[in-house]
Design a protein that fits this description.
With 467 residues, the chain is mostly helical. The chain contains 15 helices and no strands.
């Protein structure tokens, strides 16, 4: 690395320390809030009377608050932090627009907080990943644009001669999110379409959140971290760009698979199924590029990254299989679909981004994590919690779907047959929550120690100046 590159890296590590720390602290705080709500929601699956006397925590509102806190609280803050870090690091330039980034972060989190309180108050919508009231989403759209400004400037002002696939995924996610998010707001909230079109646009938006926003950020982290942590280049790197374009072009079309058997034109679910199967080519390319690195070296961030890649690939294969019409007839509208979403958001995206956070925080702050044992403890809790939660929901969904195919099966009998596996899912949520709390306390310890060190340095400098 040249001296200019060293200077750019140092600039990345110090200049943006405050704004990036704010994003990271917000993300882990929201993770605790989201998984706490997720635990309440998981308990209500097998014990519907839990908190039933509190209107804000009825089953539907709890689910909406949980998904909002998870996607727009935890995932959004973490995604912005990781994307900004990768683009600035690989671009080799200097930070610009940090004031917009800080202001955008504050307004984004204020908007999410208002939205969740409004959902609890009863003003939410029934649209997946758009449950907050219509007047909150424009604030998030503008705030997200402000947060992304330094990333766009880092991309356009990069000093490196070439680009990396990690940059492609990061910048692609930052450009695609405001595109489909604004379009969805117009068609579903501001000037809503009616009839069948509403269900189609809703499925399109929900799929885009996963395929065009969170998945590219997770893959950007994987392609950035694995070569650097293992010391091995990505094999078949020429195919990495092809994998990127397959995800971007095909991923958005897979939303139609959620409408199998619905009152929509037959070509829409058929197109969704075909796109889900075609997307297996993307997962095959990701496997070709990243699987060799999974067997090299062992570091704390690398453990999270490996587990996240396995979850991403497993979720992609399962998603394609479940989208087929025969499987959809059994598993659609069951706990199985919730388990697949959990596998992606909590497993694939969550573990990959947590690995990136554990890698970038020491470089950002200039200090090592206080306790490596806590990192390993968080890894065990996060992996165990995800495995238990996903396994419980998948098995419960399989049993539930099979029972629903029989007209003589009562809902009470179906609930009784799935209850043991839903208990397992609740135990997984509790385990994951403990891990999130460990990570949040760990980051707080590091940042508070950094603040005390900075305050002591300023005090010493003031004393010397006075003398």
């Amino acid at each position: 690395m040249s001296s200019d590159s060293h200077m750019a890296a140092a600039d990345t590590d110090t200049t943006a320390r405050g704004p990036l720390s704010l994003l990271l602290a917000s993300s882990l705080a929201w993770l605790v809030v989201a998984v706490s709500l997720g635990l309440v929601h998981a308990i209500q699956r097998h014990t519907p009377s839990f908190l039933e006397t509190i209107p804000a925590f009825t089953y539907g509102r709890t689910q909406a608050m949980y998904e909002t806190a998870l996607i727009f609280g935890w995932a959004a803050n973490a995604a912005y932090a990781v994307a900004l870090w990768i683009l600035a690091r690989l671009g080799g330039g200097h930070w610009r627009g940090l004031g917009l980034m800080t202001g955008g972060t504050l307004f984004w989190n204020a908007g999410v907080t208002i939205g969740i309180f409004c959902i609890g108050w009863g003003e939410g919508t029934m649209l997946r990943f758009l449950q907050m009231p219509a007047y909150v989403h424009p604030l998030l759209l503008v705030s997200g644009a402000a947060i992304s400004t330094p990333a766009i400037l880092a991309w356009t002002g990069r000093r490196t001669s070439g680009t990396y696939v990690a940059q492609w995924y990061a910048i692609g996610a930052l450009f695609l999110f405001p595109w489909f998010y604004s379009a969805s707001q117009v068609m579903l909230l501001a000037d809503p379409v009616s009839g069948v079109s509403r269900a189609i646009i809703g499925a399109w938006h929900a799929q885009n959140v996963l395929s065009l926003w969170l998945a590219p950020i997770a893959l950007a982290a994987a392609y950035y971290l694995l070569p650097r942590l293992t010391g091995k280049p990505v094999p078949h790197y020429g195919f990495a760009g092809l994998g990127f374009w397959v995800l971007i072009v095909v991923g958005s079309w897979t939303g139609g698979r959620h409408l199998v058997g619905g009152p929509v034109p037959a070509w829409i679910p058929a197109t969704g199924i075909a796109a889900a199967v075609l997307l297996l080519f993307h997962f095959m390319l990701v496997w070709m590029n990243l699987s060799p690195a999974l067997r090299a070296g062992t570091t704390d961030p690398l453990r999270f990254v490996r587990a996240g890649i396995v979850a991403y690939l497993a979720g992609g294969v399962l998603d394609a299989l479940v989208s087929l019409e025969g499987a959809a007839a059994r598993l659609q509208f069951t706990h199985f679909q919730t388990g697949l979403q959990q596998l992606f958001v909590q497993g694939a995206f969550g573990l990959l981004v947590l690995g990136a956070i554990y890698d970038l925080v020491p470089r950002l702050t200039g200090r090592a994590w206080p306790s490596p044992r806590q990192i390993r403890g968080h890894y065990v809790l996060a992996l165990t919690g995800t495995a238990l939660s996903v396994a419980g929901l998948l098995i419960a969904g399989w049993i539930q779907g099979g029972a629903l195919l029989h007209a003589d099966a009562s809902f009470a009998a179906i609930a009784a047959s799935t209850r043991p596996w839903l208990y397992l899912a609740s135990a997984g949520e509790l385990t994951f929550l403990l891990g999130a709390m460990v990570a949040s306390v760990h980051l707080a310890r590091l940042l508070l120690g950094l603040c005390r060190l900075s305050a002591a340095g300023q005090s010493t400098a003031t004393t010397v100046t006075a003398s």
